[in-house]
Design a protein that fits this description.
By secondary structure, the chain is mainly α. The protein is built from 15 helices and two strands. It has one domain. The chain has a two-stranded parallel ribbon with strand order 1-2.
Length: 300
């Protein structure tokens, strides 16, 4: 018996699929330039406010903008941000290094997530499903995530710990990527010590990454947390209402049911897809904070 497809392709006709799936360089270049410009501005605020009470809100804002570079990383590992595949790969490599998330390994991880969204075998399932309030609060700190990323990177660089979602023919490349990434970090650390950049590295990268991570955790938990574990992209994923600022910062990923239903659609076309299939969406949450609180109440 033929199993029904988890992808609701029938909601878009052929002409709509062709129109919405068109990849262009322009929108991503403009969006990435704006994101980096804001990041430069928030970083300047942090640097200038050191030694004053303003450093706390400055770090918070800078950390959120920095950690949400995850959004263009996510888009580029889909190869949908830019029309040019090489440009997607190059930008993904840079962003993945900045976020302690090597891009090629993450690409395979995320591909498995899209194949098996929120069902057994999904490598993101453990990140999305929590049993107790303590589990959620620990997850919110980002500590388990950073520990896992560091240990995974070291193990991969040592030639061990390649996950099952990586095809055998790509395993050597994944190990090589980890070694290059670890080499970049060691070189950066040595250069910062020799040239006196340690303060800049700490204030503009390390501390903001730690400060911003809880906000990304809440954002990502809302995508599938508490949704049914079924192979139906409109049921196992959640779209979340948000402001224009959040949608811009997250590269339209609040339209997450739409993204999982049509993963080949570039970020800039997701609002149009949302408008087209909105009556068919199963869950549109009113806010990220409300979704996270609902998950906590369910855990209690």
């Amino acid at each position: 018996m033929t199993q029904p497809s988890p992808f609701p392709n029938h909601l878009l006709d052929a002409s709509a699929r062709q129109r919405f799936g068109q990849r262009r360089n322009g929108p991503a270049i403009a969006h990435l330039a704006a994101h980096l410009a804001v990041l430069g501005g928030t970083g300047s605020l942090v640097w200038l406010s050191r030694g004053t009470g303003w450093v706390v809100p400055s770090l918070l804002i800078h950390g959120i903008v920095l950690i949400f570079l995850f959004a263009p990383l996510h888009e580029t590992i889909h190869d949908t941000a830019f029309r040019t595949k090489a440009l997607n790969r190059w930008v993904a490599a840079v962003l993945g290094t900045a976020l302690l998330l090597p891009a090629d390994n993450f690409r395979h991880f995320h591909a498995a997530h899209h194949r098996l969204t929120n069902v057994p075998g999904d490598p993101e399932l453990d990140e999305q499903q929590r049993e107790t309030m303590g589990d959620y609060l620990l997850h919110l700190t980002g500590w388990p995530l950073w520990r896992e990323r560091v240990t995974s990177l070291v193990r991969l660089a040592w030639g061990r710990g390649v996950e099952s979602f990586v095809p055998p023919y790509r395993r050597r490349a994944i190990v090589r990527e980890a070694r290059v990434t670890l080499g970049v970090y060691l070189s950066l650390g040595a250069a910062s010590w020799l040239l006196g950049w340690s303060a800049a590295l700490l204030w503009l990268w390390v501390i903001p990454m730690l400060v911003g991570q809880p906000f990304l955790r809440v954002f990502l938990l809302a995508e599938h947390g508490g949704r049914p574990q079924v192979p139906d992209m409109l049921r196992n994923s959640r779209t979340t209402s948000s402001t224009a600022l959040v949608r811009a910062l997250a590269w339209n990923m609040p339209y997450h049911s739409e993204h999982h239903a049509f993963p080949w659609v570039p970020f800039h076309a997701l609002p149009a897809v949302h408008a087209r299939i909105k009556p068919n969406l199963i869950e549109v949450a009113p806010s990220y904070a409300g979704t996270f609180m609902a998950l906590l109440r369910a855990a209690r």
